[in-house]
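Ticket 4471: requesting a sanity check on a complex prediction with S-adenosylmethionine. Repro inputs:
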Amino acid sequence: MFVDRSFDAYQDFLLGSKLYWTRRLYPALKDDYDRKVALAGTQPKTSEDVAQIFAGDTLYQYYAWLERHLQRLKYSGRWGLIPQHERHRTDFEALVANPPAGDLLELDPDLKLPKYYTSVDIHQHPGGVWSDAIAGFVYERGARSTTPLLQRDKDLHHRFTDQVLARRAPKRLIDFGCGFGKSTRPFYEAARDAEIVGIDLASSGLKIAARDAAEAQTRHVNFLQRDARATGLPDGMADVVTSTMMLHEMPPEVIGEVIDESFRLLAPGGLMIHLDFLEADDPFAKFIYYGHSRRNNEPYMPPLDRMGIASRIESAGFRNVKVEPFEEMPGTLAPEFKNWRFPWVMISAEK
Ligand SMILES: C[S@@+](CC[C@H](N)C(=O)[O-])C[C@H]1O[C@@H](n2cnc3c(N)ncnc32)[C@H](O)[C@@H]1O
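Returned C-alpha cells:
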C-alpha cells in the first residue's frame, strides 16, 4: 500500500527463508530422524523420546533457530512490520478513522480483555493484536507469510467456507475470532442470503474488517467487539457457529466456555465447526508441534492438543462430534507431501 522497496526486499527475503525452512529444512530433519531411528532400532514412544534423539543436534538447532527468529525478524529490526507501520502510523490511522455508517461495526471501548489474551504476545506479535490502534494492519500484513505454501489455489479460508456451506446453508452464521475479517469475508461473499456476524476482542482488526465490507458494499454482515465466551447475543439465534485459528490461542477452560456459548447461540440442529490445529498421535509430529508452540509464543497449543476437545464438546450437549483432517491446499494430505505444515483439522458437532 505504501510502496517501500527496502521493506519489501527485507520481507521477501524472510519469506524466501521461511519457504526454505518449510520445503527443505523440515523434510531434511524428518529424513534425519528416520535414519537415526532406523540405526537405533527402537521406535520412540513420546515427544520427549524424540527430544532425546535431537539433543545437541546441529540440524535441529538450525531448524529451531530459524523457526523462532524468522518470525521475530518479521516484526522487528529496521524493516520489520512494527517499525514500518510506525513510520506510516498517521496514514494507517486515517484509513480507519471514519467507521462505516450503519450497523456494520459495533465497538465496545469498555470491553474487559481477558488475562489469557493480554498476557501473551501471541505468535510473537509485539503487543499482540489488541494493544495498538494499528495492530490490525500489522497482523494483516504479517498473515501473508504465516502459511507460505505459495501455490495458485483458493486460499484456505475459502476452502474452509466451501466445506462449511456444503454442510449447511445458514440463515445466520457467527464467525468467532474474526480478526481483520479474513475468515468472515468468504462467508459473506458466498452466503449472500445469510446474516453473518463477525466477533472479536480486538477493535483494530474489526475496523479493518468493517471498512473492507463497506468497500465491498456488503450490508449483510455485522462486526461486533465482544468476547466469544459471553457474546450477549440471543439464545438460538444462529444455525452455524465457526472459528478459524482461534481455539489454539485459548486455554482449555476458555475453549470450554466458547463451546458452551456456541451451544447456547445455536438453534436446535445447528452446526458448530472450528478450523484449528490438532496433531496426529505420532511422537515426531508432536515434538514438532510442541516445539512450534514454544518457539512461536503459542502457549495454548499443547493444552488444546491434550484437553480431549471431543469429549468436552459432547459434555456440552452436542452430538455427532467429528474431528476431521483439513486439506488447506490440494495434495497436503497425500502421503507424498513432505513439507512442514500446520496439522489442520475441522472440529464439528451438531446441537
Ligand atoms: C489467529 S487470529 C484468527 C483471525 C481470523 N479468524 C483469521 O482466520 O484470519 C485469532 C483471533 O481470535 C481473537 N480472539 C481471541 N480470544 C477471543 C475471544 N475470547 N473472543 C473473541 N475473539 C477472540 C483474537 O483477537 C484474534 O483476532
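Notes from triage: The radius of gyration is 21 Å. Leaving this open until the requester confirms.
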